[in-house]
Amino acid sequence: MSIPPASSSDETSVPSGAGSASSDIPPPTPTPYPTIMQPFRFPPLRKNYTDLTYDRNIRVFHPYYPPTKGHDPMLQFKATDGGAQYLMVYYACCILANNCMQEDEGRDNNNPDGPFLSKSPTSDGRIQVSLNDILEPGNYYFIMPSFSVVSDALSSASKSASTSGSPSSSIDPDSRGFHYAIIPTFDDWQPPKDIPQPWQDVEVPIDLTIDNPATKLENEPCYITSDMNGVELAHIIPRQETAWSKRNFVANILDSSKDVLGDWKNKIPIRKDLRHLWDQGYLTFFPKSTGGTTARLIQLCIHVIRLHKDYSKGCECIDKYHNTIINNLHGVPAKILFIRFAWSFFNEDVMLLFRTSSNYRVRILVPNSKGEMNAEDQTLPNSKIFKRRKRNAMEESIENIPIETLDNDENLSSSGAELDSYIYPADSPSFSSTDDVVSDYPSEYDYADGYDPVNSDCDVDIDLSNPSRIVRRNILDDDPSRKR
What we know:
Blueprint: E1 57-61, E2 75-78, E3 84-85, H1 86-96, E4 116-118, E5 134-135, E6 138-143, H2 147-155, E7 163-164, H3 197-201, H4 213-218, E8 231-235, H5 242-247, E9 267-271, H6 272-279, E10 283-289, E11 298-304, H7 311-321, H8 334-344, E12 359-367, E13 373-381, H9 382-395, E14 398-402, H10 403-408, H11 410-414, E15 469-473
Parallel strand pairs: 1-6, 7-13
Antiparallel strand pairs: 1-2, 3-5, 4-6, 8-9, 10-11, 12-13, 14-15
């Protein structure tokens, strides 16, 4: 017997409210899992630097020590801006020539007395500064045409220093200008009374709404990268220059009269790894211009003034940090920024002149019977200049530290910050150049008078019987580092 097909009325009924295929109620949506992980990622790829964009030099010679006689440049800058900022080169040369800068910045061809840059050892090669304020790679000469510039520079020196003898005794007023003396070390340099205008233009007034700017500074991010982690307070004028700072009355522009360079106005928050580059003088400040003198804009920027001997490392530093604008140094005096710039090029990566076996006219500070420092022009062989540079580097910041302090302080035992930073760089000099035959290697000294820098002045009578205290030079700051 056949079974008739079931009719629609015979279909299994669905309980009310349970839903059916014909119901308008949508099916339940699956609950998504919460996102609890960041996506997996590889470290950023390292850029491969194959061109030689930065491996070009702007070299400035003294007209009386030209390369044709085997001399090295007075100053050498890398082409980190497609060349070098004219203002940076001009003011660096003026500092070495005893602060001989003038208001026209070497641009006015009608100024018969102002120092200027030339493409030849004579005034005939005087350059016309380009509208973009950039010097192209090549050789230049810094010429001082008038003795009045020397006199003006001497009159602006500190009252604690005086000049012995007449600088004009060895000055030849020929087409090369005057034979000006060169300041060989930062220790021999005295800051001018009046700070040049570019540094005044970038000075940021103190924020009067902040009750305690020193405390606020401790909680600031890195001023170069804006990172909050691993930030320390680094010194703008290095701590090792405390004696120099006291001698040059730096305390007069800071709040602290006792701990001169420990003042908050001499500090900048920097990420810990960058602090090594900062303390070693790879990074500095400079007020860079957008070009010319008409309505130019001045910005305080990070400038990479020294490059690592490894070309790729040097290029990486430039790509990441060079020309970073720093506009939040509230309350930091222009003089502090200017001193930092001057300190940055008294090293053997930038200041190369004294490598050739020869005599050089230099301006040095010599103590008198009263303990005051007198500025004197002397003609010295490069061997004595080298000894003076090394001695200044060693004696400037020698401090006695209990040996247990070194054992317990990881910062003192492991960090290389502020060691040998302005005379003996921790790393070898910059990579060699390809644009001319002048050597880039600061270690290639040709010492005069048979001077042996390795075996000279060895102290064979030193007493090592008391090991409880040791002498350590150029130590890291003795105040606790700020870590976050």
